[in-house]
Amino acid sequence: MSKISQLIDHTLLAPTATATQIDTLVQEAVEHGFKTVCVNPAWVSRARRAVEGTPVGVCTVVGFPLGASTTAVKVFETTDAVTNGAHEVDMVINIGWALAGQWDDIEAEIRAVVDAAGSQALVKVILETCLLTAEQTAEASRRSVAAGADFVKTSTGFSKHGATVEAVQLMRETVGPDLGVKASGGVRTPEDLARMVEAGASRIGASAGAAILAGSTI
């Protein structure tokens, strides 16, 4: 297991994913020593059974990919994910609230998800930075810290574009040295990964983890 592999959430969030593909994802994660497999909620139980006895964790998504479900639904999704064995939960904020400046609502929702996860799962907050201004990204990051989240995350990978160096730098500067920062979406090469880590990312979400690891010299 390498230091590099432990940065990577080995990800398959396509709606077309099959059981066979999820099993392969887990096998690759175990083989390469990735931090987690990141799968849609329907696959959490299967992935959890498959990682038993290995160091690989299971990550899933909440309010994904739009972030526009109600807080109650996001809380239920979180509780369900934890019950099914998720170790980490990546939740999407309500983008419309961010654009309208409803920061107290965003903070309250994040806190509700954090409370639902309890001590059983880490919570990463997906900001979808490609839809936000720098000021909005910074405020969303501050609210994530205030609500008790464990990470801020750039992107779902399903919007206009994924992680950028500039967004990762801003998020790291805002949250300080201790909170996690996850760069996700568009990280496909060793060079991409290196740039994100240099900018301040402590976790990488990628579907190309095996290829990245094969060519990485970090």
TrEMBL record:
Molecular-function annotations in GO: deoxyribose-phosphate aldolase activity
Catalytic residues in the record: D90 (proton donor/acceptor), K153 (schiff-base intermediate with acetaldehyde), K182 (proton donor/acceptor)
Biochemical pathway: Carbohydrate degradation; 2-deoxy-D-ribose 1-phosphate degradation; D-glyceraldehyde 3-phosphate and acetaldehyde from 2-deoxy-alpha-D-ribose 1-phosphate: step 2/2
Keyword Lyase: yes
CDD domains, per database record: DeoC (cd00959)
Similarity section: Belongs to the DeoC/FbaB aldolase family. DeoC type 1 subfamily.
Name this polypeptide is given: Deoxyribose-phosphate aldolase
UniProt gene name: deoC
